[in-house]
Amino acid sequence: MADLLKALASEERMTVLRSHFDDLPMGFFVTNCDGYVEYLNDEAAKLIGFESTLEAIGYSLYNVENIINCGLMDAFNSILTGRTFRKEELHCTNRQGHFAILNLYCSPHRGENGEIAGIFGIIQDVTESSKKKAELEEAIYELSIMSQVSEALSSTADLDDVVRIILTGVTANEGLGFNRAFLFLAKENEGYLEGKIAVGPTSPEEAGRIWSRLAGQKITLREMLNDYSQHENDSNSSLTTLIAGWRIPLDSSGAFSEAINLGRGIHVFAGEHTHRETTDILTRLGTESMAVAPIISKGRKLGLIAADNNITGKKISDSVVELLQTFANQTAVAIERSRLYDVQVERARELEEINRQLAESQDQIIRVEKMSVIGELTSSIAHELRNPLTVIGGFANLLVSTGQIDDAAEYLNIILSETHRAETVLHQVLDFSKASRARTRELQFNDLVVETHGLLLSKLRRDQAPPVLQLADENPHIWGNPEQLRHALYQFMLLTVEELTSECTIKMATATENRQVRLIIGFKGREPARAKVVTTLKQIFGNPTGTQKLSILVAGETLKYHGGDYGVEGSQDNLPRLYLELPRYTGGEND
Fold first, then answer.
1. Which of 12, 332, 462, 508 is buried most, with the most CB atoms less than 10 Å from its CB?
2. Is the pLDDT confidence value at 143 over 60?
3. How far is CA 458 from CA 42, 255, 466, in A?
């Protein structure tokens, strides 16, 4: 009778369990104190891998433990003392070989008299949610990497910095984590890829040293991108040597050309059917597997990134290849921006040069107009004065020739002298006016000086010592109006010769200094000739007479019009000397 009542009580409990848990959307099971399954619903049977719930009744937890390997048997006795047990995200394969990620929760259940009668267990399948969680975490990780790389790229427009940042992101453990990365840039017009730079260790020993140091520094990816350790420069240089100058035709049948033409990243590995050109690439880089991602912007083939795990041998997943392609896309944008920046910088330089040339042209136009006005003005004044001076001189000569005005002879001679002096000035002015009509052209400075020196010699009086001329070995070129320049040089030569040849020796010499050519007029003599030189030059260039002032004004403006200058400077023998300088012509000027 007692066994019958116990059986009825057990049947009633199973009925209650089935009514409550058969349709539960997660696995539920009940064991007795010995660890044998007394009840489980369809979901629990499916997760463990039973064909039916009946097959599982009487199944030992020990056998369940062998399937899900969660440490349940080690905790079994603890549960029977009143404790709970939980394990989350268990990766296991059930009796039928299906993989799943499970959460397991267990707690004791009590009988009618309050004694612990066994274990309640809940099995929850979280495979999909775990996958989505992992995908979300991976996406967040990838976004973090891209964000840090983008931030670093936005801080520079220099192509070398762009390349360094990208390859650092590819090889950094906090980034994509490849062991090595190689960059090839396309020469589209020539139709080939050319090795640019590589990053990574060249041997396992070197990799160990680098990675140990970086691990000890505990720097973030952002810090690494902003200040890439200079310790890697030597190894990177060695690795770069492996690909520097290596040219791969874009129309070949190898993996690099395939990736460029497909426009997407690919996983390349050595195999029996691998194309020979691809095998050659892998052999030269010393690897059996690598990810390759083309750098393409708006259809333009800019280059390619290749990366491998040559040191660790870690398998390259498809997701990492996709992420490398994202890096390559970032590289394309950064390279385009860098090149655009270089174009803008070059354009700014060109505009600056154009503005400088325009300013110089404007100054030259002003000087031309100024010289033209001076020429016209001097010509007009000279012609107006020449006629009355001719008349005055003519009548004075007529009176002197009659011999009937002895008392006025002195005055008439003064009139004749001053008339002659005025006519000399007018000749200078008319010579300058005539010279203004000549065209500018390329000249040889020494030749111009020799011609002018010869003209000066022909005008000297017999009692005047001719100045010595010494020419530089180089005969530099200048650009200008030959007649104007000859007139200007002649006026300065004449001033010094007329005033100082009776006092000292005059030496003229040509020289080239940087971008200037010079005619230097120096003096030699003893005291009091030395004092005379100082006094005379101060008077000529400090307080000149009317005639001297006009000569200096016209000759000086001519030199300045041609971009030159004049002045007095010291010398090694403590005597002042006169210098005339003009800009050296190096070609490219317009007349």
1. 508
2. yes
3. 130, 85, 10
